[in-house]
């Protein structure tokens, strides 16, 4: 092994060791706190900088995310997603919806999971389980659910 490679391995090992020691010391600090310490911390009257930043982030996300898509009370379907699937399907009339999740916020998007069946390019009926990501009333991305 070259001396240069050994040097990098030793430095990498030291960095990892320091990270582990730092993490362990943080855990010990958390364990040493008393309930009184926690109650004093929780009684802080003015909002913290973290809370302020978090509120700004949520407001920003809401402006990008848009209005929450409506779900059918009957079957939980989301019309925006149904339209998207049918516009992009090879055989739109073959689509059969099986299951829908609740629409939830996911960062700067809304997300919903849909399970459906439909014919593929080979004419075979396949099951699909997909996540659909929505911004401002449009499907902007989709991915397979694992």
Q: Which terms summarize this structure?
A:
25% strand; single chain; 146 residues; five-stranded antiparallel beta sheet; alpha+beta; 2 domains
Provide a descriptive summary of the structure in words:
- The protein is α+β, with helices and mostly antiparallel strands.
- The chain has two domains: 3-65; 79-144.
- It is 45% helix and 25% strand.
- The longest helix has 30 residues, at 3-32.
How are the SSEs ordered, and which strands pair?
Elements: H1 3-32, H2 35-42, H3 49-65, H4 79-88, E1 96-100, E2 104-106, E3 109-119, E4 125-135, E5 138-144
Antiparallel strand pairs: 1-3, 2-3, 3-4, 4-5
Describe what is shown at a glance.
With 146 residues, the protein is α+β, with helices and mostly antiparallel strands. It is built from 4 helices and 5 strands; from the N terminus they run H-H-H-H-E-E-E-E-E.
| Number of extended strands | 5
Q: How helix-rich are the residues, as a percent range? A: 40-55%
What does the average pLDDT come to?
A: 79
Given the structure, what is the number of helices? 4
Q: What is the radius of gyration?
A: 25 Å
